[in-house]
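Researcher: Quick sanity check before group meeting.
Model: Go ahead. Protein one:
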Amino acid sequence: MKNVPKTFGGISKKMLLLVTQFAATRYDVIFDQYLSPSIKDYERDLRRESTQLDFNITGPDQVRPSDFLKELKNIHFKEALVEFFIQHWASDEMVPFVENKHILINFKQCHSYVVDDNKIVSTVDDSLSCPEHEEADTKIVFHICNIDVQANFVVRCSDTDIAIIMLGHMHNLKDDGSNVWLNAGTGNNQRYINLTKVYENLGSTLCRSLPGFHALTGCDYNPAFFKKGKQRPFKILMKRPEYQQALMHFGDPELLTDEHRQEDIFKTIQKFICEIYSVPDTYDVNAARLQLFLNNYSVSNINEEFNRKNSKNFDASSLPPCKTELFQQFLRANYISSIWNYAHEKQPTIFTPEQNGWRLEENQFHFHWFDGDQLPRDVGESLQQSEEDVSNNITDDDEDDDLVGQYRDWLNDENSNNCYGDCDD
């Protein structure tokens, strides 16, 4: 919103004008909820969003904070602002803005506004209220999939997630004659993307595999594979029906409760990840890690001395995650998909993040990176002994000093639980 009005009443009116600038008879305005604890906790920390500062809006004449954009990082401010919209749009001074339109706001409940006899009639639409949904993305899909008449739906957003989730739900539209468009960009860069045509061109199976694919390869809730992005993995996915079938079942209750089913799908996912890292026809990411390392550092014969200097420049981030770490990524992707793939229902999932790739500490969800030891016990003990030898001045070997220093730095990095890849939408 450019040229933000000085008062909250002005902001409310301008917001409604922006919402209704497109020709339509019904407008659904969808907002996130801010639940705690949440799997979005990590992302909110990265965005430096604050939940500490309370905020109260007393009426339309109240003057907004001078730094409006900064205040939008305060979750309590955003909640107060949406609650104000809900109340203000129910006042009769909004009649000229609503006119013959049907306006809905979905926050904690779904509020409906129409004009009757020159007065605003405000009601709560229980059929569209979905308090179990945290994200606006899944609420939008819930609204679209619960309209049982033929319609042209235009979704105005700038988020990749909604396109992915919607393509995974095209088969859940109640009227096959309906079309879904995505309106993205601003000004001269504004574009309309016909998701119905995209769905027809890609096919049902590939589209239904996209939510699982997006959750696995990196999204707001799950780290990405370092420098792998989306394009190469997607090209591989398009060519391999077995990967599409596996990802299509992400989020199924059976996949979150049946260990044997998990093992079967996880084996296929390992093969997919190995192919992303250019080690095809391999079902074990640990074997792929070893192969990639040996491609550069194996000796030509058993009598050749291993050059430890070269290994110091090896970038471990170029390797796929180990099996125990990938399994936690797999569990998180499954849990996320259980929300996305059932977005057309009031309660998208009955499962919890705990035991599915997260742990709860101090009322906040944190990534659970792996189970077991960080290193094989023999390797850990050997490096620990080397460190003790250096500290006791038993050796003055520069190479050993460097190796121990690298081990100490690596161990500190692992203990800090940093992502092994940046999130990449």
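Researcher: Fine. The other one?
Model: Protein two, sequence then structure:
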Amino acid sequence: MNIPQASSSNWNKLMELRGVARSIIKIKVGCGSQTFFWDDNWLQGGPLTFRATPDFIRDSHIPAKQKLSTFSSNNHWEFPIVVTQQFPDLLLLDPPCNSPDKVEWIPSPTGVFSLTNTVTWLAPHHQPRPWNHLVWNSFSIPRCKFILWLAVQKRLPTKDRRCMQSFPDLNSASSTNQLMNRITTCSFRA
């Protein structure tokens, strides 16, 4: 699906996330009547369109919107030999059954969509930093928090960093006077 130029930013972002959504939705094949052979994520390696070249898809003579159930015959799968040579995991597929195809949500242990499980899956947890409690607490002075945070991020304007960035030397009298003047006249000082 092509994204129109005049569409909203929210719609554009949703369209960009289609690949992510496709990777976390899996089809558990029953009879195959609801599963598209090329486009749905029903095999271990993902949708077959991502695993095959456009030339192979064209030469296989399997239409783009072909349902998986068309390859079912007498309780077993009958795929074209060319396709099974390209995708040998088709031979390991469980035989078709009478149950309907089931959509499973991979981030959820139950397979049912859950916003909590999806957010946890999309935004991996980071280990707390060892300095976190030093900077972000309720009893530190905000100015000290900021300076400590700069130091931890290695962004504090120390003398060696200023020399590397071609800043004037802080040991000179004029630079020191200018710095002290700025600090004492600053409206945000404690």
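Researcher: One line on it for the slide.
Model: Residues 9-122 form one domain.
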